[in-house]
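step: validate -> pass
step: tokenize input -> pass
step: predict -> running
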Amino acid sequence: MNTDKTLPPILYIDDEQDNLTVFYSAFRRNFKVYLANSAQEGMEIMKKQSVHLVIADQRMPEMTGIEFLEKIKLEYPDCIRMVLTGFTDVEAIIQAINKGRVYRYITKPWSKDDLKITIDHALETYELKEQNRKLFTDLEEANLTLEKKVIERTKKIESQRREITDSIQYASRIQSALLPEKEELDKHLPSYFILNKPRNIVSGDYYWLAHKDNKVVVAIADCTGHGVPGAFMSILGLAFLNEVLNQTESISANSILNQLRSHVIKSLHQTGKTDEARDGMEMALCVVDFNKKRLQYSGAFRPLYLIRDKELVEFKGDSMPIGIYSEDDKSFNNKELILNENDIIYMFTDGYIDQLGGPDRKTFKSKQFKQLLIDIHQKPLNEQKAVLEKEYQAWRRDIEQIDDIMVMGIRFTGPGIIAWYLIQSHFRKFNYQPLPFCFPLDISLPTQEGNILNHFGIK
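step: predict -> pass
step: emit ->
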């Protein structure tokens, strides 16, 4: 049996005591019934008690039931309001219902069972309102909690992002320190440019230069992946190239690639199984003998472009990587050519030609890249680099960079290039400061080494 504590509270207002007594007797077991014989008394009860439903008689001396219900609407908006009336007042009540001031009207005389059903429905409406209010409150609290957590997590993520970015920035400085320094490049290359555009802070593309036995070895490489994974591979590549050259007695371009491949396969424990990662790198490598004006080239997927007399010649690399391959015992091919005056070579990774852009959002493609190089190859090297950068940005538009980019161009200006190289070599032999390169020379130089050295007073 229900107790007062669990019964829903309702208020009945009527100026006739007999009506109050009958109502109380009929519903005291079903509801916690509060009684008032005037609107003023009803208002006092509502101030002191929580009331879910108010039933007011329409005909009261101080104010009508509708007037009373209208008065409490603003202060107690969730309380359900019903009016008890005779048939003569139905039209006014209907208007009040349509305006939202009254939930329902009850006609006199009322039936206990019918009124009980009406009251139950009204209280269900009140309960739904309370549940909605609670849900809304809970939702607001949940949103505030969620916003607080989002702010806290955002701060945490931002802090972690800064830590990671700082670490990658530091890794970038390490990677840059491992690349050949500008002074070293200037010392061994007559005229060159390097366009280096990492997709992320660190890059999977790298360049390398070394000098041994009066030969200059220069390469560009594209490692598997980009960002941090590619950078790790690039550091391996740079270390292995230095090791290979130090251990090599007779320098040839393909021999360096063969030995580099062996180092990569061994260090990454590659066996050729179908489920293992096939990490590695693509590379174009040249060995330049300035004394003999000869160039060796060997490539792992990456080609070499030579522009001579305004014509571009492509030397294709072998279709196998520096890494595990089905024919990893097959040697890379070696191509050799004689350098002519004003020859210019280009080595590059695939990031430039694979960049999406243009009006149709397609890749730049090799054909367009070749024509661009032909158009600019006679410009000074620093201008060529600037043009390549400008054309790339114009092509890319608002599309993000999809890969690391590296392009290297080297011009062999002669016949002064031989004199430059011999003088540089002679000064290095005695630990003198090498001369800066500046060609074409304004004097006509002999082509024999002895005469050139005599011409500059070098014995």
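step: describe -> Residues 430-459 have pLDDT under 50 and may be disordered.
step: cleanup -> pass
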